[in-house]
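User: quick one
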Amino acid sequence: MDIFLQQIINGLTLGSVYAVVALGYTMVYGIIQLINFAHGELVMIGAMVAFSVIGALAGTQLPPVLIVLAGILVAVPVCMAVGYTMERIAYRPLRGAPRLAPLITAIGISIILQHVALLVWSRNPLAFPQIIPLVSFNVGGAIITGVQIAIILTSLLMMVGLTLMVYRTKLGIAMRATSQNPQVAGLMGIDIDRIIAFTFIVGAGLAAVAGVMVGTYYGIAHYSMGSLLGMKAFSAAVLGGIGNLAGAMLGGILLGVVEALGAGYIGDLTNNVFGSNYQDVFAFLMLIAVLVFRPSGLLGERVGDRA
Amino acid sequence: MRAGLRQMNILSPARAKWLGVALIALTLIGLPFALSSVGTAWVRIANLAILFTFLALGLNIVVGFAGLLDLGYIAFYAVGAYAYALLASPHFDLHLPFWVILPIGALVACLFGVLLGAPTLKLRGDYLAIVTLGFGEIVRIFLNNLSQPVNITNGPQGISRIDPFSFGSFSFSQNETIVGLAFSGPIKYYYILLALLLLAIVVNLRLQHSRIGRAWEAIREDEVAARAMGIDTTRIKLLAFAMGASFGGIAGGMFAAIQSFISPESFVLVESIMVLSMVVLGGMGNVWGVVLGAVLLSFVPELLRYTVEPLQQSLFGRSIIEPEVIRMLLFGMALVLMMLYRPAGLLPSAVRKRELTKPQGREA
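Assistant: Done. Structure below.
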């Protein structure tokens, strides 16, 4: 039982990170129907930038919370700038082009970002300096660490903030209008280009924070960490119903929990034929299963059948 | 118009063209000997270039003809390679001849293609991209881990001492002297690869304007309209996917035989991206464009390896940018810049050019 609870806690932690990344995918998809393959790389850049800052400040006597906060405060604007540049250079000129074109540039951008990161930070992973004291609490036999609590709370905060922004502000109204019908939104006086750029910037900001969280959780960050995380987060977004904010959150958390439980129990269930090294397979199997049985996702209304 | 195109592609009546073809043929036949005088390494590079051209032609069926973005193409290559390795190596002590295994490899890869394509091809194209991406990862994870409890793939160590191609006692891995010319192993492989490549080119050219090829074109341009015209879109797309997968399977088998060693390391996402870049650079849907793209992207990185590295050494005394990184940046740039400035590729197919530059209004 305590293993079960432990896996649920681990799953919730990782799941809330997936959820935050999935929000970025789903927002961009909702507004311009593009799978932004490079979104995972934004997470990576966020983690790398933050780790560099944190590493530089680790020697000072500042409190650890401030150091991590400084890392986030540098990483977020950097990622936002990268996200904006990406949209301007690679996606905006192709907005009227056939669907294949922006998908291919997205892949290209992702490769470029990854290898620029390799040039900047080299192949070796950056390690998170030992500055955060290990705090842990015992919950019914399972252990939850301070870092896990911080990750879950931060994610919740960002999800709430984003929801408020999309549903309660003028900017949010403009975003929703643009995603429903860009032409008409344009006629109503909404500057679509600005709104789309803004969507990318918000998504990139979320990705940066997610990068710091996942880096802190695992203790390392490296140039190729983005692609797998990105793929999983995208699976989460599809699971929840792509284009749907609540769906992305639900999908992310669900995926995290399924993955954790799967990794925890697959050995027992299959008599150790398959071990926890198959953990990364679950996300994709789930993605394929969702596409077969419910292509519109758990909360999506739109049927995913537009050529 | 269509008949005219076909003639231009295959049998142009113009003498000059035949002369050109003869020249190219002579160059291709003489090439390995010229290369081996520089170094056998270059013959191997040429072999891999042909292999990748073959792969790119396979992917061209999927991406170029049918307009489906497959980002896990290398997985089919992996399936073909492992099929060959398992059936012709000391690993299971099976030693089937290559002409039996290559079709098996193609068939298995095709089966995987159908299994993957059947559920996803009903949906809109973008999902296919991400599902194939995931599939590529899954295959690699399985190859890495299927060494327990029954050792099937031998895990990350890979499978070694794979049999070379051979007819009876004539093995493709030995050196031999025929009519005064020294044929090394790679040179022999060069010719068989070249023959297979020619076959692939012919298949591609014939497919392009066949009934199926026109159906693919229709789906690519407007799927809803194509369906209204009575095309069973899911089935036709699945056909493209399966056909591309079989090409990958055959190429994989040849790769295993030539290298005589394979491991999951050879089948990473980067390789899928590389093949895609070849197709995109040359011109999606244009057979000669794809060949050009594949040859360029196979040789240019090698040339860079031999020029940039020494240049950096002499300028800075050490290597600042690894050739591998330059190679990848090159692929990334190729994808982005081509899409932005020349979406139909270096040698665009006429139809593709019209499609990709068609003004569609700003919002879509």
